[in-house]
Specification:
Number of helices: 0
Strand content: over 45%
Number of strands: 7
Order of helices and strands: EEEEEEE
Structural class: mainly beta
Largest sheet: 5 strands, mixed
Helix content: under 10%
Distance between the termini: 17 Å
Shape: globular
Oligomer: single chain
Radius of gyration: 12 Å
């Protein structure tokens, strides 16, 4: 799977094994994340990897994350 980062035109391939379970950031909507960063979402008790960063039409930043259990979430 190839994901295109619309804000920078970067591409990344998602490989589930690349989720770093030893070095991750806990998800918070107030934080800024980088493409490829491993994150932990406490509510879902799930680890994932940032696969895309986008800017919505109203100017808000958002990320797309591929999680191990719940799949892709934005």
């Amino acid at each position: 799977m190839v994901i295109v980062d619309l804000s920078t035109n970067e591409q990344t391939k998602f490989i589930p094994e690349e989720i770093n379970l030893e070095n991750f950031s806990e998800y918070s909507p107030a934080k800024t994340f980088v493409l490829g960063e491993s994150i932990y979402h406490k509510t879902w008790d799930d680890y994932g990897r940032v696969i895309a960063k986008e800017i919505s039409s109203n100017g808000q930043n958002s990320i797309k994350v591929e999680f191990q259990k719940v799949g892709q979430k934005k």
